[in-house]
Amino acid sequence: MKKIIALLFLTTAVLAATAQGGHAPMKFSGKSTIEAAGVTIPLETDTVMYSGSNITLPEMRYNNFVIPSFTIHGAEFSMDMSTMTVTFPEQQFMEVITVDGVEKTITGASLTGSYTHDAFNTFKLTVKFMYGAMPMPLTYSITAYYIKDYTDKLDVSIGGMFNYTAANVTYSVRTYPDGDNTLLDVQVPSYQLSGTPLGNLTIGSYTVKGLKMDESKGGYYRDYAADGLSMYFKSEKDGVVGMDADYVMSQGDNNILVTYEGKNIKVTNAFHPGAMPFQIVSTFPGVGEATGIKQVDSLQMTVDKCYNLAGQRTTGNYKGIVIKGGKKYYQR
């Protein structure tokens, strides 16, 4: 029951943000593929950004060829208000980005996708495009799930004897399906602590993947001691640096528990950096900040978008060669 309530809350929060017209881009993460010349490269994790009609794709690598991250502006879409599902119909696009001072044209032959307000807020996208003078088209596909950010203070206990607070830290949580199960990925943030017995500490970020519902613990749990995760840890006291490296967390208690209660989330993380003899326990109570897509603008869906040869949107007063619907026209 708690699991169902938590998922319903996540869906309701995004729906409310959508109706209010949020401004911050939404983050989605999931598995993707890059296909070129009949070769498909699967990627375990990729992140796309979505805000209104703008979609930002991540950096892509094909052999030794690198395509930098770029944003598709003004993608046409429709929304089913009964299901709050955004659909991107088959369409073309054009963008221009600057790489090392050189302009590169991205010609999109096809873009299709959808954003569904299901329990996981699923974002699907397939984009076929040419980048600069590359000799072949590339197809990028992804099925991704919403990453929700929670910002609040963080209470930290070192060795059960010394307690500290870090303000305004942000945990990022992704919920996604795995067969009949629901899993969570949690990005633990970086933060700093002052005046500890080891001096001023800097604790780095890392991500724990695959938390499963554990009814006995009342939330999503994972023991990650065997996951091979590492974290950056630095201590500095009286101007002298002590620990300053990435340390594997493989000894002692290294586990994380995420619980939901209403609109609140609680993250309890117990860990040992390297061979440190004492345990650090952080407790995070956070409330998700409002975020979401912009409201559907009916004019956006009906007006054909024009671009000049530099990939910039033009108005009806523009004179010269324009690209409209993937084709060139001369506008007088």
Summarize the structure.
About 5% of the residues lie in helices and about 60% in strands.
Describe the overall structure.
The protein has helices spanning about 1-20, 300; strands at about 25-35, 40-50, 55, 60, 65, 70, 80, 85-100, 100-115, 120-130, 140-160, 160-180, 180-190, 190-195, 200-205, 205-215, 220-225, 230-235, 240-250, 255-260, 265-270, 280-290, 305, 320-325, 325-330. With about 325 residues, it is mainly beta. Strands 11-12-13-16-17-20-21-22 form an 8-stranded antiparallel beta barrel. A hairpin with a 5-residue loop joins strand 9 and strand 10. The longest helix is centred in the N-terminal third of the chain and has 19 residues, at about 1-20. The N and C termini lie far apart (about 65 Å). About 30% of the residues are buried.
Q: Approximately how much helix is present in the residues?
A: under 10%
The largest sheet is: 8 strands, antiparallel, barrel
Helices, by number, come to: 2
Strand adjacency order, main sheet? 11-12-13-16-17-20-21-22
Mean residue pLDDT: 83
Amino-to-carboxy terminus distance: 63 Å
Instruction: Report the sheet-strand fraction.
Output: over 45%
Poorly predicted regions = 1-22, 288-303
Shape: elongated
Radius of gyration: 23 Å
What structural class should be given to the helix and strand makeup? mainly beta
Give the helices and strands as they follow along the chain: HEEEEEEEEEEEEEEEEEEEEEEHEEE
Q: Tally of extended strands? A: 25
